[in-house]
Amino acid sequence: MSDFDAIDSLLDAVGPQAELPPCHVRRELRERARLSKAQVARALGVSPSTLSGWESGRDPAGEIRTKYAYLLDGLNAKLATGSEPQTAPAAEQPVTSDTAATVTPLSSPDLDQDGDEDDVERLAVPEPCVLCGRPAGQRVAGFAQHLAPADCRPTATKAPAAAAPPAGQPAAQTPKVPLRTTRPARATERSKGPARHAFQEPSGPVDLIREAVQGALAEHRGDVDAATAALVKRAIPDAMRLLDETRKGARYDVIAHPWIPDILKKQTARGADQIWEARPKWTRHELPPGRHEVTALDINGAYLSALKTHLPLGQLEHSTGLAHDRRRSGVHLITPPEWEHEAVLPNPIGQRDEPGPLWVTEPTLRLLLRLSGPRHQLCEPPQIHESYTSGATENLLEKFRIALKDARDTAIEQGDTVTLEYVKAMYSKFVSTMGESNYNRELYRPDWMHLIRSQAFANLWLKALKAHDEGLAVVRAMGTDELHVIGDWRRVFAEGRSVTEVKVKDTYTAGSDAAEHEGEGE
After folding, report:
1. What is the tens place of the pLDDT at every residue in 385-411?
2. What's the CA gap between 388 and 336, in Å, rounded?
3. How many other CB atoms are found less than 10 A from the CB of residue 197?
């Protein structure tokens, strides 16, 4: 009989899933209720990135779906019965004399380092910040919030976990959001939430990393190898948690799962998409006469530095026949220019066998435009045929990058190999799994992945150009971090282990009288 009891229990757990409104309605309900993603995510026991996915295309399942539907149903009921905050977003208010008296333009020149014109307004009467609930003196894109993350701190008294209707009172329904969710049977019980992580109430992003390392070492009783292996294994979710922490109070939302054009989708299960990243793979054909000592330089933290690149904020939009707009970023179909300097410098688009148009990323296009400009005049401008772009900023991941860089610098200074390997795994896996990967379900941005990788390749190419301009002979440029040169490279590059420095990987002799270096030309 126990077998049948187990089956009956399993059957009882199977039932119709709770209905959810369309994605745009979910976000609209949250924003109308002036709840931040962080607030809702905490109430549901998920990360803000996961919530972003639910508001842009994905659906939760199981018990968490029921909780999410119940929350949305409660918000819909509250707003439908007139409990919506009286102060509407500025973008929806009619322009009257009273409105003009309370809202004035904020004209600080330091608000946008990229020169973008955002909808930022100063409030004569502070309103609750949508992120932390404390009084804020500005509106950004129609919502009151703090501009500086340091000002955006949660209040001592936390808001209720979900905006639910009073006990015993059914949730009101409106035709706009046809939800039929009822309160879960155990909703009054305190949810245990997700499993505990090493990240617990940190005081800052770098503390997330330090506390995770300390927790792993304690769990494995000081075994460095075991702690390192455990940290590397969980590097992806920990990187996403760090990203969420560094995005608190940010002025731009991260759209984690936007619509993606077909050119950014893999053509086959094990194949690639149509984006060309311009990866350098170049070896100089002829060296100057005589024997030479060649130094193979290793570029430190290539992908970490490449996190500072122009990333599209929203969904990519198609355009044709338009000039390049530096305020936007994405991918572009171009006909690249002829490259006549192959003897001394690699082609900026990499080694490509087939001629004609190809899809390149923003960093590659900007590099070609820079080289065709009046300063360098190394090639003709590329011809742009069509593009998929969105409004962009170079600082979207800047706090995330700085947190990782600071932790890396401290680990190197202290000889902390555990933290160093952990940080390296965090940023390298973060970049490699944000495309079509089964290891990172919270962020699906193959466009970002290609842009960051291409930025690393462009950074290496610019180092090769700098070496060439300073009189060094460039012998080889490979991938993101390998540059071989002849000459006194220390007068050109600083030596060290920071991301702004280079270190020696190898030295060897090459030239007409020297044996060919092992592995050369592979």
Report:
1. 999 999 999 999 999 999 999 999 999
2. 17
3. 14
Give Cβ neighbours of residue 436 (< 8 Å, ≥ 6 apart): 265, 266, 444, 446
3 state DSSP class of 55: coil
Q: Does residue 179 have a pLDDT over 50?
A: no
The owner of tokens 């300390």 is 214
3-state secondary structure 373-436: CCCCCCCCCCEEEEEEEEEEECCCCHHHHHHHHHHHHHHHHHCCHHHHHHHHHHHHHHHHCCCC
* Rounded average pLDDT over 20-45: 85
Radius of gyration in angstroms for the set of CA atoms belonging to the chain, rounded to a whole number? 27
**Number of residues written out for the chain:** 522
**88-98 pLDDT tens trace:** 333 333 333 33
Q: Which pairs count as long-range contacts for 128-135, CB under 8 Å and 24+ apart, including other chains?
A: 128/34, 130/31, 130/34, 130/35, 130/36, 131/36, 131/38, 131/248, 131/249, 132/36, 132/249, 133/159
Q: What is the token pair recorded at 127?
A: 């309103």
Strand 383-393 and strand 311-312: the pairing is antiparallel
Which residues face 331 on adjacent strands?
361, 388
Helix (H, G, I), strand (E, B) or coil at 235: helix
Contacts of residue 340, defined as CB under 8 A and 6 or more positions apart, other chains included, come to 379
Cβ neighbours of residue 252 closer than 8 Å, sequence gap 6 or more:
313, 393, 396
The answer to whether 116 touches 391, Cβ cutoff 8 Å, is yes
Catalogue the E-assigned strands of 86-186. 103-105, 120-128, 135-140, 143-144
Per residue in 404-446, pLDDT (tens digit) is 999 999 999 999 999 999 999 999 999 999 988 888 888 899 9
Indicate whether this model's pTM tops 0.85: no
